[in-house]
Every structure is written in C-alpha cells, then in structure tokens.
Amino acid sequence: MSGQAVADIGLIGLAVMGQNLILNMADHGFTVCAYNRTTSKVDAFLDNEAKGKAIVGAHSIEELCSKLKRPRRVMLLVKAGAAVDSFIEQLLPFLEKGDIIIDGGNSHYPDTNRRCDYLAEKGILFVGSGVSGGEEGARTGPSLMPGGAKDAWPHLKDIFQSCAAQTDGEPCCDWVGDQGAGHYVKMVHNGIEYGDMQLICEAYDMLKRGVGLTNQEIADVFEKWNNGVLDSFLIEITRDILKFTDDDGTPLVEKIMDTAGQKGTGKWTAINALDLGMPVTLIGEAVFSRCLSSIREERGRASERLAGPVIDKFSGDKAKIIDQMEQALYASKIISYAQGFMLMREAAKAYGWTLNNAGIALMWRGGCIIRSAFLGDITNAYKKNADLENLLFDDFFHAAIEKAQPSWRQVVAQGALWGIPTPAFSTALSFFDGYRAKRLPANLLQAQRDYFGAHTFRILPEFASEKYPIDTDIHVNWTGRGGNVSASTYDA
C-alpha cells in the first residue's frame, strides 16, 4: 500500500450527502480521505468544494486504507443494498482486526444485523448509522443514530458528536444499541416522517377545499402554527412551499402532480409493526395514502363516476376551525409518536436491544427531518420516567390530548361530512379510542374464528368455571354438527 496515514476517517461516496458530510467533518478539525468509484469526482471535489480544507483524496480502495490512521474508520454513503456489500468486500483485503466500517446509508436493519455478524467473524467492527437531515443537515449538522459493534463507539464518538446537530448544548447523536439498532431507529424515524407529512397534507387539503383558503392564507396559518405547539421543520418548509411562486406568478405547488413517491422506509416500518403485532396505524395509513396517490389515472375515472358531498362555500367561523385543526394535528402527531415508541419498545424486547428512549428523542430534536420543539417534551417525558409505558401516560401528553379531544373529533367529523379524506387524522383518533377502551369487540371476533375454524378462545376470569377453565384454549361445538378438535393458535 502507498500513502501516509494522515486521515482520521475515510468516506466513500461523493454524492451530495457524502460531500457535505466530509466538509462538515473537516470544519470540525478532522482530516478526511475522500473516495468515489468514479475517481474523476474525487479530483473535481478536491479542486473545488474541498480546496484548502483538511481533505485528501484517494483513487483506489487500497490508497484510501493506506491513508487512514489506526484503527481505520471508513464510512460508506452509498446506495443501500448490493453496493454496501460490494464495498465491504473491496475493503476487507486492506483492513485488519479492530478496524471499523460504518454504513451511513438507509439500509434495512436486517441487512445491518447480517453484516455485523459477518464482519465480527473477521475481527472488523461494523456500525450501521442512521443519518438524517438531508444535504443541508449533512453540511451543518445532521442527526446521527449509530448502532452495531459497541467497541467501535469510543473511536467514533468525537467525530460523530462534533459533527452532529447540537440542541441545548447536547449533540443529536448517541450510541443507539447493538447490531441494526441504529438503522432500526432511523427506519422508525422515517416512518414517523411519513406520518407527519400525511397529517400536514390532510390539514392543507381541508383548509384549501373545505375552508376555501388560498395558498397564501394557508401559508399564513402554517406560519402561526410554527410559533406554537406545532413548531417544527416540516411545518416551516410547508409554509415556504405554499408561498413559493413560479415565474408566471402562480403557486408552484399547484403545478406538481399529485402522485407521491417513496423509497421504502415507511413501508418497512409498517411491515415490521405487523410482524411484531404492534398497532402502528398512522404510519401504515400514511404509506397507503401514498399508494392511493400513485393510481392517479384510476382516481380520475373514479372522480367522474363516484359522487360524494358537494362542498358549499364555507360560511362558518374560519378562525375557530383553524384553531380546531391545529389541535387535531397536534393530537394526531402525539398518537403517531406514541405508536413509534411502542414499536421501538417491542423491537427492543424481540431483538434483545437496550434502547434509550430519552436519548432517541434527543437525537431527533435537531438536524433531522422530524425535528421539532415537540421532541423536547418527549425527551423530558422519558428523562422523568425511563420506563414510561406509553407517552399518553405522561402528565404533559395526557393533558395535551385531553385539551385537544373536542377539536380533534370535530375535525375528523367535518372531514367526513365534506367528503375530504383524513386517513391519518381518523386512524389516530380510532387508535386513541381503541387504546382507552377497557373492552373491545374482539370477543365476538374470537367467537367467529372458533365457529368457522375451531381457532379457540379464552374465557374472562370472572366467568371461569369447571366447564370453561381460566387461561385455557377452549373450543365449542357451536352448531352441534362440528367436532371437538381445535386448531393450533399463535399470537398476532
């Protein structure tokens, strides 16, 4: 190998995120070695954005590794999937025991689990780190969520925490947990992001089609909301988007096709919630709403054939319904985050991780897409009680939901009366009502399952008897024609 070990960390992948993170690291006093498969990008970067900074280049993986101080730290910011595995294999011949590979892409956490195990056998420490904040966050301070081989953390802590966003003097970065825990938490972050965006879009739709506000008036509403309980990056950028006009003076947002894209992280969250049997309903509805938007031509045909309510010109109190919508959005957001933390709690049990909920909320307070003042309240709730069973049990959030309830119910009802879809608002309220119900109609559902499929049921303790013993799977011959053999059972 040629080259002198001068760099504190190497970074592979010079797309916008990679370049900005390198510049961020250099600004914080670390020497970075940059490499890209297309090596001309390395030269262009060194001659332009990186000029005069503590950044060196490499034209091969071997040269990159030769320029790194020990233990070597190499961060990958490449497309998730096969590219990550390919670069790992290219790096291995030039690494030695105790060196560190960090995957900073949006990898699926089971892939990170596999890579941790595979590299541990070779003595290499693997870290999967969520990186959130987009290109601006990468440059000025992202939220970083590292997990994997914990022995790597002392060698990464200074670099990561220096470059991360800072909130109230604390870095939006801490060690998350073993194996794929970092990428798991980033996955849930992205799922919550889907939910936040869907809720905002539903509020926009109701304000526009229902209340009849112009884009500028809606932008003014979001401006006001951003100074209250909804203070957040997504509310702020929505305000800016609604104010943005094209060259012809019309709002650009009106010209954008109403078909939403997705890269899979929201879907992964919803699928994982189903796998773990957790009712993360709002993220699921947000994913399905994007799916519904994608069948645009079919929706066009449906719009001509399927009638709904005619929305008359709004004659009510605009200020009142805007205030109600703010409360409905806030309450639904609380539910979404409560569901997200329920999912992470269950994942920690299922996968043997120890997750610090207060630390996760703090990591999300700055730098990332879902950053908001609201996350400070979540941080405080888990700092107050690390074993908090549910966010809704915290005094602050309990009071907030109680205050918001009347407005929340009014907004969901009004959406139904107008014929304006509110899947995220509605599912949040349905979850809340289901969660607070001491009894649900699942007793009838279990009876149905036992009737047609001998799937058994359990009896309530107060009705236990010799005929119906407690904690026992019971099958009844409902018709007199069936047998007494029951099907096997499993927990959803």
Low-confidence stretches: none
* Secondary-structure element pattern, one letter each: EHEHEHEHEHEHEHEEHHHHHHHHHHHH
> What is the helix content?
40-55%
Largest sheet: 7 strands, mixed
Q: Helix/strand-derived class?
A: alpha/beta
Radius of gyration from CA coordinates = 26 Å
Question: What is the number of beta strands?
Answer: 9
Strand content: 5-15%
Question: What is the molecular shape?
Answer: globular
Strand arrangement in the largest pleated sheet: 3-2-1-4-5-6-7
Task: Characterize the structure shown.
It is a single chain. This protein is of the alpha/beta class and 492 residues long. 52% of the residues lie in helices and 8% in strands. It has 19 helices and 9 strands. It has helices at residues 16-27, 39-47, 61-66, 82-91, 109-120, 134-140, 153-163, 181-210, 215-225, 233-243, 265-276, 281-294, 296-305, 318-351, 357-363, 374-384, 395-418, 423-435, 442-453, and strands at residues 9-12, 32-35, 55-57, 73-76, 100-103, 125-132, 143-148, 166-167, 170-171. It has a 7-stranded mixed β-sheet with strand order 3-2-1-4-5-6-7, with helices on both faces. A two-stranded antiparallel sheet has the order 8-9. Strand 5, helix 5 and strand 6 form a beta-alpha-beta unit. Helix 14 (318-351) packs across helix 17. The longest helix is centred in the C-terminal third of the chain and has 34 residues, at 318-351. It is globular and about 80 Å long. The chain starts with 8 loop residues before the first strand and ends in a 39-residue tail after the last helix. The mean pLDDT is 94.
